[in-house]
Amino acid sequence: MNDHADIKAALRAMPIETPSWAYGNSGTRFKVFTQPGVPRDAYEKVADAAMVHRLTGAAPSVALHIPWDRVDDYTDLARAAKDQGIAIGAINPNVFQDNDYKLGSVCHPDPAVRRKALDHLLECVDIMDATGSTILSLWFADGTNYAGQDSIAARQDRLAAALARVYDRLGPHQRMLVEYKLFEPHFYTMDLPDWGTSYAHCVALGERAQVLVDTGHHAPGTNIEFLVTVLRRFGKLGGFHFNSRNYADDDLMVGAADPFQLFRIMHELVRTGAIGAGSEVAFMLDQCHNLEAKVPALIRSVLNVQEATAKALFVDADALAAAQANGDVLAAHAVLTDAFSTDVRPLLAQMRTEIGLDPDPVAAYHASGYQQRIEAERVGGSQAGWGA
Amino acid sequence: MNDHADIKAALRAMPIETPSWAYGNSGTRFKVFTQPGVPRDAYEKVADAAMVHRLTGAAPSVALHIPWDRVDDYTDLARAAKDQGIAIGAINPNVFQDNDYKLGSVCHPDPAVRRKALDHLLECVDIMDATGSTILSLWFADGTNYAGQDSIAARQDRLAAALARVYDRLGPHQRMLVEYKLFEPHFYTMDLPDWGTSYAHCVALGERAQVLVDTGHHAPGTNIEFLVTVLRRFGKLGGFHFNSRNYADDDLMVGAADPFQLFRIMHELVRTGAIGAGSEVAFMLDQCHNLEAKVPALIRSVLNVQEATAKALFVDADALAAAQANGDVLAAHAVLTDAFSTDVRPLLAQMRTEIGLDPDPVAAYHASGYQQRIEAERVGGSQAGWGA
Amino acid sequence: MNDHADIKAALRAMPIETPSWAYGNSGTRFKVFTQPGVPRDAYEKVADAAMVHRLTGAAPSVALHIPWDRVDDYTDLARAAKDQGIAIGAINPNVFQDNDYKLGSVCHPDPAVRRKALDHLLECVDIMDATGSTILSLWFADGTNYAGQDSIAARQDRLAAALARVYDRLGPHQRMLVEYKLFEPHFYTMDLPDWGTSYAHCVALGERAQVLVDTGHHAPGTNIEFLVTVLRRFGKLGGFHFNSRNYADDDLMVGAADPFQLFRIMHELVRTGAIGAGSEVAFMLDQCHNLEAKVPALIRSVLNVQEATAKALFVDADALAAAQANGDVLAAHAVLTDAFSTDVRPLLAQMRTEIGLDPDPVAAYHASGYQQRIEAERVGGSQAGWGA
Amino acid sequence: MNDHADIKAALRAMPIETPSWAYGNSGTRFKVFTQPGVPRDAYEKVADAAMVHRLTGAAPSVALHIPWDRVDDYTDLARAAKDQGIAIGAINPNVFQDNDYKLGSVCHPDPAVRRKALDHLLECVDIMDATGSTILSLWFADGTNYAGQDSIAARQDRLAAALARVYDRLGPHQRMLVEYKLFEPHFYTMDLPDWGTSYAHCVALGERAQVLVDTGHHAPGTNIEFLVTVLRRFGKLGGFHFNSRNYADDDLMVGAADPFQLFRIMHELVRTGAIGAGSEVAFMLDQCHNLEAKVPALIRSVLNVQEATAKALFVDADALAAAQANGDVLAAHAVLTDAFSTDVRPLLAQMRTEIGLDPDPVAAYHASGYQQRIEAERVGGSQAGWGA
């Protein structure tokens, strides 16, 4: 078991990236409900992300989504972020919201559409260069709705070709994370439906291609901590898109649906040295806040990740190993659940106080007047959203 | 086993209602791809529905969705439909696309919102009166995203109160069908998530409240033909919203994902006398055509239902009963699969020829010039869509 | 929020019944691994159950399974239980382990088999009379493996007829709980697959027929606390078979797979007055301990239920209602998660100390020498098991 | 589209292996129902398998399961098979039915148990040498039931070490197929839960290690034809264990639950040249016949695979490619469904007649008197079964 100082040190060294799009409006196919104060451009999203970081001390970067966050001068955007204490994180290309992409992007049967999609991916590497981003986060909406609609195999070939082109374009300090998703927005096949497919492509590409695990993108019953462990073992875990789900890709706040699952994932990461300084695993949120207030929801989500991690750091590794070696099923299980049952909120509050933060970041947000200010200032213009 | 004449007679007496919204644009939360020629108002949707009926002879009514299909004069809309050979079918209220409905409609914690939603439901009964519709088709998007967000029990009480008010408003020849759905657009609870909840409310309401089964709205592994049989046994099967799914509520064309399942459902309906003249079970499509051409997709869907029904009518009921009574598992199963393996397309083509239709309605559509005409005529204005 | 004294009082008044079969050997279709010290008859199971009660103070009854627990004199067995401080709880008939039941029991196509099954059910009511049991717990393995194998509707009729016969036989202080299960041991249909089917039959039977919720028997994604709330609302929640699952009916220790789910279920029960003195909801464990030591696993399971219930009792009901009324999604959710994050183990330890128990029942078991004694004494004879 | 002669030629060149264990008794954890005439040893299983081949002309080999099929002289068993017209197929080691294997076999925490399991695997390669078998079919029941029970990562290391030892032992004409399964008999982790984990290990091992796809071993919603295509593309599809499922690993007859799925899988195999002479993909049944008569169930299953394959051979590949290239979703889908709607039973009957077989193998079985003979002869002794 780590002592309290170690736990606090590990948590202070664990960055949790928030996504620019979570500050904008989002919703379902049935309705996007708008909220007052929502940002209207990338700069305002950066401002909200900086606010989350100021209050939590744990969210020092913000992921961009292109073209939703398109600006004239990405160097200027990066500078604006830096001025507010955060950095630009992963760049997320979007090749699914143009009419040309109805039947796919890099997997489309028409080579002209594939070329267009590839150009956008390459443009995103330019943006990485301009912003200092080191991660290209690739999710493709490509897939089909009906058996026979397109050749599964031909689409794999097209996908591999595009990935190889992008991989070759990466600079020496850049990497690409290849995300997968079981279904949606296509409902018969997705061209990257599971970690195995992402993994096979990443192996073929090389060491700077790694798998991105979105916690909401799996089939029912999938044991996420297991595949995380396997990916660590084979050297291909690039990072996470955190959120939570009860049914499908529900994009709820991380830890809201099943906090014990989040703890188990964190336990595997603690165990393999992926938590703390020097970790190369990227921790990124990827969520929607359809009903709840957005900035506080992101603060709450950062806290949820910290609490799960703190509990994982409380696991008595020696006692666990001893019980496992003895085949003592109940004792080994109890080591894990004892850590999970621990109330880590006081320790986290103390940690925040020690670094000059309010011990309760959500309350601090409500007391700050920030929400009132953005609601007053951000009138007129077009609220940012998914742009569907 | 029915003879061919009986099979054709049963199919000729089986109406399959198409939904007005399937003629408009639809999509996912990520993107709605538009298509040329899509209707711009309820009259144009009625025209498309009439075209499907002219070619198939099997789709004599069209369901409306309010407010998507709002018109000044519903009597006039009904007359326009009748002039083209079809009738107005079920009326589907929409209480999920107004900003007020973010936290629910009839289950909302605020009584003012509940009243607004109820008023809309009652208005839809007025529209039933004006159009001659006999079915009020109720689906509520109500639910919550997070544990604790609202009281599950209080929401049930609010739901029951609203349903009772609407029930009391129904005329003697009208009925309400209460639909359920496991998840989406809410992801922790839906206030009507399963057939059991719909059933319990319908029993409390009375005989003119019945359960509406949407084939895409179940948990993985749910045996739909089983619950259909149970609902028939307890007298509460009101009708279907047909579509198909591989994962969730994918809203693909009925029969596209699992044609054997559709056949098994139809077998249970044939067995209980729900197919053919006098059936009180309503057969309605409820689908999206995000990628494929809309009118041909609806024609194809009508044909899929007919093919599954024809195969079900081919089941040798006497042989089946004998094998079941003998406990001969393989023989009983083979009776069903023999019927399913039968190629019924020639019989259906013959049936169409006999009633003056083209034996291949899809080919007839492409040969008709209708698509070219609507693409040419329907320019300008705003294409109909889900309005999210 | 309840104060600590109220919480402890509520927990002290909450009986958790253990099942006799959990003390015997169990396993999967692939292998039943045996354990030393396992009981060889009903009396030894009762002794183990009494030991669990002595250490936890919370498990004052043991459920029987007939014929696994068949004895010559049930009155004597009840007396033996009473002498050790516990009572006989629910009686569970078994109509699935005789060669005659291959195609079903009360739903079998052959009336002679149905009669045999019915006789066994009625015999179990006799055993209720002899033991003082008030609950007949009905689970039927009946179902089919292949489409067409038997008539779904005819089997429903046979089921209804048998249930009615048993219902009529019940004494005034006895009730029957009707359990359901999605699948296994049949894999196409189960004759009682979901709560809706159980509910419909219970409504037809009368007020002494209620639904039994086994937490492991649902389709993936089913929201159990929702259906529990609905069953409470409609007056038909009879009780629980507690266990936990990751995939199917995995029969793991309750609370092991998803402790937050167990807490949410308990919250709904607390909210509706089903916890504490006078509750008519029966709390029963129904688990397997294939790998782990059996008596300690049952102790641990009782503690898990108590911890989840204690957390539910910590929910600040007033704050929750206020946040819900305000539509404050994040605040309402936080009321629940704050209670869940609370470490209730110290309070529970204190409660045990106050009533003269060891604060750590698992440690007390290991210190007691009981396991060594039963391993030494229970040699020879035939270990109890599922008898498959 | 292939012409009828080509289709018949392809089917005649497609061997479908039956598993010895499917001729024995099987069941669920709740009950194994016995059947008269069931084999009592490996020789009688071989006789039944030979009967299936005589009637279908399509099942020229039988898989063995060790130790269920342990004999003194495997060369003699192979000769007995050859005398009856079939060969010994894949060898399936069993390292899950010894008390030592409670916590695993090659992944067990105790090195002595791992060594014992490894020895058995190596013994099975000896049996391959003796019988001429070229396939070692590896399925491990290894896993855990509770979070923390054992180290996921350490178990992966142990697994990799054992696989490497077995791989090194293989002769130049032998290969190992590595199967995976989502859950059962363990319910928290399986050490090989999905195709990705099997694939990663096979890549590390070398070209004679390939993935074995059991159609029943996936999470709900998994698109099996997709992963089959990906495995073909990356050169790692070794073969199939065919069966069908509605819920979990239900082990029903192949094609019984979803014939359209089986057709889609076969379509991908036809498309990539895996059907017909020279294919290196092994087609093996792996099923249970708990309720239905065993030999006829296996005949029926062979026919189901042939029918699905024949339909796949009916797909008009040119029309499909043209529609896909045009992005004509409905037309491309219709090419597939037209082939599926074709009644191929007459063609298959004709093919059988042409090679001297009865056109209806199931009827031929019932007319043969074989069942009566085995029921009369196989009395006394111990019926073969899973031995759980």
Automatic annotation (TrEMBL), chains A, B, C, D:
Keywords: Isomerase, Manganese, Metal-binding. It comes from the Bacteria. NCBIfam families: RhaI_grampos. InterPro entries: L-rhamnose_isomerase, Rhamnose_iso-rel, Xyl_isomerase-like_sf, Xyl_isomerase-like_TIM-brl. This is L-rhamnose isomerase. It comes from Rhizocola hellebori. Residues 72-268 form the Xylose isomerase-like TIM barrel domain. GO terms for molecular function: L-rhamnose isomerase activity; metal ion binding. One of its GO terms (biological process) is rhamnose catabolic process.
